[in-house]
Design a protein that fits this description.
By secondary structure, the protein is an all-alpha fold. It has 4 helices and no strands. The protein has a domain at 1-13 and 48-87. It is globular. Keywords: Signal.
């Protein structure tokens, strides 16, 4: 759970920094908007496995869609996403 909180805080900090999630197209914007939507839904029903999986998928989409991440950063984030337990 601690990794999950740290990951969300890191993502929040990066997304608040001007130009941090610099969308080179609309795919990054759409991925970010979808993440906000599913995270809000999951926060209202934290025990819902489907909503948890949707958050994991949307985080993966952000990592793939936003060009600001290096390959090493993507690997770290992808490993952290795998550690999120939706059971």
């Amino acid at each position: 759970m601690k990794k999950l909180i740290v990951f969300f805080c890191l993502l929040a900090v990066l997304s608040c920094k001007k130009g941090a999630l610099d969308p080179t197209g609309t795919s990054c914007e759409k991925a970010s908007a979808e993440y906000e939507k599913v995270l809000t839904a999951w926060s209202q029903d934290i025990n819902n496995k489907t909503k948890c999986e949707a958050v994991k998928k949307s985080l993966s989409d952000i990592i793939r869609s936003c060009s600001v991440y290096t390959a090493a950063q993507r690997k770290v984030y992808e490993d952290q996403i795998k550690d999120i337990d939706c059971e």
